[in-house]
Amino acid sequence: MGKQADPGIVASFGKYEDAKMQQFIETKGQAMAKISHRNHLDYEFKILDSPVVNAFAVPGGYVYFTRGIMAHFNNEAEFAGVLGHEIGHITARHSARQYTSQMLGQVLLIGGIVISPEFGQFADVASQSLGMLLMKYSRDHESESDELGVSYSTKIGYDAHEMGDFFNTLHRLSTKDGRDPIPTFQSTHPDPLDRYNKVHQMADEAQKKNAKSNYEVGRDSYLRMIDGMVYGEDPRQGFTENGMFYHPDLKFQYKLPNGWQVNNTPAQVQMGHKDGKAAMFLSLGQGSNLQEALNNELQQNKLTLVEKSSKNVNGLPALAAISEQVGQDQQGQQIKIRVLSYFIQYGSNIYKFNGLTYDNLFSQFAPTFESSMQSFKKLTDPSKINKKPERIKIQTVPSTMSLNQALNRFNVPSNRAEEFAILNGMQLSDSVAGGTLIKTYSK
Predict the structure, then answer these.
(1) pLDDT tens for residues 174-188?
(2) Does an H or E element contain 377, and which?
(3) Contacts from 358-363 at CB under 8 Å and sequence distance 24+?
(4) Are residues 186 and 261 in the same domain?
(5) Are 417 and 364 in contact (CB under 8 A)?
(6) Which of 134, 136, 150, 246 falls 20 to 30 Å from 100 in CA-CA distance?
(7) Which among 244, 315, 53 is positioned nearest to 166, based on CA atoms?
(8) Which of 197, 215, 231 marks a domain boundary?
(9) Together in a domain, 208 and 315
(10) What φ, ψ does residue 389 adopt, rounded to 5°?
(11) Which domain holds residue 432?
């Protein structure tokens, strides 16, 4: 199952290419795999090129960290605790049990918004690789993986108390206002503050059993390793600004639905309404012409065509179609999903929009879908085409001062101070000793 899932996961999000960071997670991952309860597996550890804060595992030994979560760790021990937690899910066979019992939670994450379970079953309408299929584990499974995470990270020499501290970061991210990606690690791993206390208790017990004189934290080494990594959205893969989506490399732009959440991946742009009852997706269509792309979409997703028409979208040839799919909810009641699709020929590519919602809500959302799809056009603005990503910059605090003063000294805007306080795992009022490394950013 892991071998089947891995190519799609990597294709959907892309790998974050950083030899130093990859060597780090591989070294620590293999060291932990050797002392795990299923050390015979061929474990693979990968960093995905996504700003969303998440770590997850699939059966067979495949463990993934997003660059978003790597940016929010503040030492090696925090990473090791989460690494142990995810390996724990594999060794306890939580994922495999849920796959085989068909209990995989069909949830679709769109920038922190989770589509309702009934709607989620129609995920294939948009794409086979909508994003991470996140598994909802039971509290017993979570407790078991936390315990294994503490045990494994302690055995390879790290202070597991830091794993507990990371739950504070997740809690602050989940309650923070703003446009930062909500940590999906929390959405699938609930009650971070409650687990903070439990993990600290388990860490005390684990350290007593191992009787080691001191446990590694590895703060400075970790921060120096992530110095220069891409932080937040990578504009070269597309970015949002003032209600618009821009893609500098592919040179297109379009208007986003007002107030919708957006999650951009290399495979597609995912957009979700706040109530979880409508979603829209932009990706590449499959086919040598517009009609062939439509035919492939209908066949691959088992859609029934209702109507179609030729369009012109800002000078670009297009084909619009309405289709539907019928299924059942968890209570066995019939549900019908209706889809508005636009296939737009631009250069050598065919761009595919899919807007989907319940049949009885289609008239409500269709104008929103169509407005966004018909706004697609060529990007010519040099300021958008040449936009560069932000990167983490590690700075040394010259003398003792508050974190807020330090961030101000390094030109972090005041309206982003709380964001960077969370990124550093501190409060703005915390006193920071001279010589301390902290995270800021550069362009």
Answers:
(1) 776 543 444 444 444
(2) strand 377-378
(3) 358/119, 358/277, 359/324, 361/277, 361/278, 362/338
(4) no
(5) no
(6) 150
(7) 53
(8) 231
(9) no
(10) -75, 155
(11) 390-442
